[in-house]
Automatic annotation (TrEMBL):
<dbReference type="InterPro" id="IPR018198">
    <property type="entry name" value="ATP_PRibTrfase_CS"/>
</dbReference>
<comment type="similarity">
    <text>Belongs to the ATP phosphoribosyltransferase family. Long subfamily.</text>
</comment>
<dbReference type="GO" id="GO:0000105">
    <property type="term" value="P:L-histidine biosynthetic process"/>
</dbReference>
<dbReference type="GO" id="GO:0000287">
    <property type="term" value="F:magnesium ion binding"/>
</dbReference>
<dbReference type="InterPro" id="IPR020621">
    <property type="entry name" value="ATP-PRT_HisG_long"/>
</dbReference>
<keyword id="KW-0368">Histidine biosynthesis</keyword>
<dbReference type="GO" id="GO:0003879">
    <property type="term" value="F:ATP phosphoribosyltransferase activity"/>
</dbReference>
<keyword id="KW-0460">Magnesium</keyword>
<dbReference type="InterPro" id="IPR013820">
    <property type="entry name" value="ATP_PRibTrfase_cat"/>
</dbReference>
<keyword id="KW-0067">ATP-binding</keyword>
<keyword id="KW-0547">Nucleotide-binding</keyword>
<keyword id="KW-0808">Transferase</keyword>
<dbReference type="GO" id="GO:0005737">
    <property type="term" value="C:cytoplasm"/>
</dbReference>
<keyword id="KW-0328">Glycosyltransferase</keyword>
<dbReference type="Pfam" id="PF01634">
    <property type="entry name" value="HisG"/>
</dbReference>
<dbReference type="Pfam" id="PF08029">
    <property type="entry name" value="HisG_C"/>
</dbReference>
<dbReference type="InterPro" id="IPR001348">
    <property type="entry name" value="ATP_PRibTrfase_HisG"/>
</dbReference>
């Protein structure tokens, strides 16, 4: 049975569960459940704190895990990312009262509160800045007001927590993060057990189904080449003949966030009856 760690709560937990359900897995129905067996898919889910997941996977106790790439980077675990999951996007950033600092170099000799001390120390060292890190478990935004730090380094998604605390980011992001699937170091995709490779393929398919749409259109044969340059598809577009020999039909996958721009360009090269449909499920 495949053993996989998933976030039990927090920013990544609902999105992980949603993606796994879309991939056909049966998950816990009670948020207090910490171990749940999906007999049909031969998978056991362990609901753990996202911060601890890399430790379980890195030690080989669990086969795979879902966590944030910032938490993976923070942990000293022997685990690596095998797939980006496309949710839980955030930035890890320095912040302080407006007008206090402009870049990491202004932090020389200062105190920085964070729940990610390893990430921060690594970043300071890389920039040859000597500063003190103050390790806090959470709610770090309030630490400046309380006088324990001059700046903070924390996860920023919408920025509303920072704004409410009267703080502003400064400098470049320390890193960009998102939800990732992780495995133990030294384990390559091809070394994964069969069940894990199926899970990986299913998650990739959900990701593709979310990122792409299916586009159909008619085009004159003489304009086909110019049109298919705009819609090359993943491998190659499907081209079908129509009753009128001057026209043909094209079917191709297109990135969803680009779909209107592509339709406008297709129209300009002569495509008509351009239709877009969502992809419910797929295997790529
Ligand atoms: N808006 C957000 N707030 C917090 N974390 C987010 C957000 N969006 C994405 N994430 C990601 O979620 C992960 C943090 O999850 P979570 O907040 O559940 O853990 P934690 O801070 O260790 O636990 P807790 O908040 O329960 O003390 C990080 O990988 C972070 O990048
Ligand atoms: O930019 P925003 O959308 O406001 O989100 C970022 C905030 O959310 C997280 O806190 P969380 O809820 O995980 O609490 P914590 O600080 O106790 O970890 C993070 O630590 C920030 O405080
Ligand atoms: Mg948190």
């Amino acid at each position: 049975m495949l053993r996989i760690a998933v976030p039990n709560k927090g920013a990544l937990s609902e999105a992980s569960a949603h993606m796994l359900r879309e991939a056909g897995y049966h998950l816990r129905s009670n948020t207090k459940t910490l171990v749940h067996r999906d007999g049909e898919n031969d998978v056991e889910f362990f609901y753990l704190r996202p911060r601890d997941i890399a430790v379980y996977v890195g030690s080989g106790i669990l086969d795979l895990g879902i966590t944030g790439s910032d938490l993976l980077a923070e942990s000293a675990a022997d685990a690596h990312q095998i797939m980006e999951l496309g949710f839980g996007a955030s930035r890890f950033h320095y912040a302080a009262l407006p007008g206090t600092f402009n870049s990491v170099h202004d932090l020389e000799g200062k105190r920085i509160a964070t729940s990610f001390p390893t990430l921060v120390k690594r970043h300071l060292k890389k920039n040859a800045v000597k500063a003190e890190t103050v390790k806090l478990d959470g709610a770090v935004e309030v630490s400046i007001e309380l006088g324990v730090a001059d700046a903070i380094a924390d996860v920023v998604e919408t920025g509303s927590t920072l704004r409410q605390a009267g703080l502003e980011t400064f400098g470049e992001p320390i890193m960009h993060s998102q939800g990732v699937l992780i495995a133990r170091d030294g384990v390559k995709d091809e070394d994964l057990p069969e069940r894990a490779r199926i899970l990986l393929r299913r998650l990739k398919s959900v990701s593709v189904a979310r990122t792409y749409v299916m586009m159909d259109y008619d085009i004159r044969v003489k304009d086909l080449e110019r049109a298919t340059e705009l819609t090359p598809g993943l491998e190659s577009p499907t081209v079908s003949t129509l009753q009128d020999p001057e026209w043909c039909a094209v079917r191709s996958m297109v990135q969803a966030d680009n779909v209107h721009a592509v339709m406008d360009k297709l129209y300009d090269v002569g495509a008509r009856a351009i239709l877009v449909t969502n992809i419910g499920a797929c295997r790529i």
